[in-house]
Give the backbone structure.
Amino acid sequence: MRSGSARPRAGHRWTPLVAAALGGVVALTGTAWAGPAAVPPVEPQHLRVMTHNVYLGASLAPALAARTTPALLAAVATIYAEVRATDFTVRAEGLAGEIARESPDLVGLQEVTTWTTTGPGAGPSQDFLAILRQALDRRGLHYAVASVSPGTDVGPIPLAAPCASTTVGTCTLRLRDSDVVLVNERTPGLHWSAPRHGLYQARQTIPLPAPGVPPVELVHGWASVEAKHHGVSFRFVTTHLETEQFPAVQRAQATEFLAGPVAGPGTVIAVGDFNSAADGSTTDTYQLLTGRFRDAWTEASPGGPGLTCCRSADLNDPAAPLTSRIDLVLLDGAAAARDARVVGAEPFRASRPRYTSDHAGVAATVGWRRPAG
């Protein structure tokens, strides 16, 4: 079991029905935008944490609308074209910039996707985690990949275009999703160990219209590490729950979350895309979670609605507003929020992709409550 010790410091677009339909078919250019306000300095014994759903890179709606095999093949080609247009190699530079500005000690990421292509002329594969790590390295940032939880796996499926062959199935496309915990290797006094991950038993099963094709399960899970910061022990967990389109499954996953990776004594910092609006307008999962946890956003009282979801799927519409707060930093035990802020809500460049993700993220500074007496 791997462990690490730090050195001195130097949703929503995941449309489940479409993912199921996919499963059934056997540049760094642009004008930079001014950065956000400077991050307040963090006291040495405070901890900075961050969560961000990095977005798989395309709306899956074209596949949802397909009713025939040719239409579905065309939809897959459209989706892959959008993945290339929202190029994660470009977005990763913006995300790495966010991480550099916020300087989080622990990061929870969701929808860390691998798009794998095969076949002549099929176009490039994209491994989001590898691409982001390279972008961080270019900034001299040192983050360990501490824990990874694999999720939904769709494909391989035929990719009609781009492909140098007209034979269906010569080129293929596969999508794999994961949740990731990153730990800053240069945070003084921070040590981590015992990486774990798990999958929820509650899953949305979707029958497919094609004869003889089995239903598809949409898989979500969690990843965690045990950590100690200046003598205070805690668990850091990230997760991505099912969308509000399937509230019963989402609530069942939240129940598993509370009974599993965050259960037991001790302090927990839980971050992620919980897909439940904090104002109660979608599902009651937020209320279930905050029956156990304190919400860092409300505890720190930064003002403003803290909206994080969601931009247009093409990441190119500056008029598309964020409308809900579903990305959260949750605390219990000795952890106490000192501040919280939304990150990545503004465009990071003037051309597509304008935004790092269809979600904004949340960064929070956490202090430690000392026992009374």
Observations:
- The first helix runs from residue 16 to 23.
- The longest strand covers residues 143-158.
